[in-house]
Amino acid sequence: MRWLRERIVLILGLAVLVYTFIPIGVVVLMSFNKPKSEQSKLYRFEAFTLDNWLHPCNDPSMCAALGRSISIGLLATLVATILGTLLAFALVRHEFAGRSMMNLLIFMPMASPEIVMGSSLLALFVAAGFAGQLGFWTILIAHIMFCLSFVVVTVRARLAGMNDTLEAAAMDLYATPRETFWKVTFPLVFPGILGAALLAFSLSFDDFIITNLNAGNTTTFPMYVWGVSRKTVPMQVNVIGTVMLLVSIAIVLGGEYRNRRQARALAAN
Question: pTM for this one?
Answer without folding.
Answer: 0.85
